[in-house]
Design goal:
Number of strands: 2
Mean pLDDT: 81
Largest sheet: 2 strands, antiparallel
Low-confidence stretches: none
Shape: rod-shaped
Number of helices: 4
Distance between the termini: 50 Å
Number of domains: 1
């Protein structure tokens, strides 16, 4: 059975991916295309990992800071330290429960912006473009 030969124009996306038909069952891929795809894959995987990390850190930080501020304001007016501590703890817990949607959305937005910014800016060494060789 003879394999049918196709030109680049007949294979969809072949010019973009730079596939070349070598023979019976062999394809070669342009190294530049492989580099572009692998760099994009590294950046996407890095941004996913950073997103999860930044989401957890931002969520916990907002809960701690907001609860501490709310608890300090609630306990500041009471002269009895035992009652002030209990009021502060309850106010901090209420802050998180009443503002859970706002905390989640702000953590999501902050972590999304930070993870995409770090992954696609080239700050991280494995997400950088390689340096060009000097001209000869």
């Amino acid at each position: 059975m003879e394999m049918q030969q196709y030109s680049r124009a007949q294979i969809p996306f072949a010019s973009f991916l730079s596939f070349q038909w070598k023979g019976k069952y062999e394809w070669t891929v342009n190294p530049l295309t492989t580099f572009i795809v692998m760099t994009l894959l590294k950046r996407i995987v890095t941004s996913i990992v950073l997103f999860v990390f930044f989401f957890v850190v931002a969520y916990i930080a907002i809960c701690i800071v907001g609860g501490a501020i709310n608890g300090a304001m609630a306990g500041a007016g009471n002269p009895n330290s035992q009652e002030a501590t209990k009021l502060g703890q309850q106010a901090g817990a209420d802050f998180v429960m009443h503002n859970l949607r706002m905390i989640s959305w702000s953590s999501l937005v902050v972590s999304l912006v930070l993870s995409l910014g770090l992954s696609f800016s080239g700050i991280l060494p494995w997400c950088r473009k390689p340096a060009q060789p000097p001209p000869l």
